[in-house]
């Protein structure tokens, strides 16, 4: 039986080996490098509709099955209020790819095309922010 500290350490190593999380030995944050970040913000046509929100989340969960996606996050606006924060969107979709080619293949992947076909009627606006390493 391992101690709690050993268990946490081994779990962290397993996550790193699996490519899920990168941690520094001293606990400092580590910059994500050599990845293509694709962050999408959705505004719903029926902004107050819990059903439409749930349907979009369902669609994004299906979309996460695209093979080139390394990690993803489905989010909503945080309860933070400062002048620089835009909380007007309903749902955000964060994905990480190994490179631009993988992201390009995601754009034409049948799962992505089906997502757009089945769920685009829910949103009134979509804004995308793609980014790569600053050099």
Automatic annotation (TrEMBL):
Signal peptide: none
Protein name per its UniProtKB record: Dabb family protein
Domain Stress-response A/B barrel: 36-131
Organism superkingdom: Bacteria
Pfam families, alphabetized: Dabb
SMART domains (alphabetical): Dabb
PROSITE patterns on file: S_R_A_B_BARREL
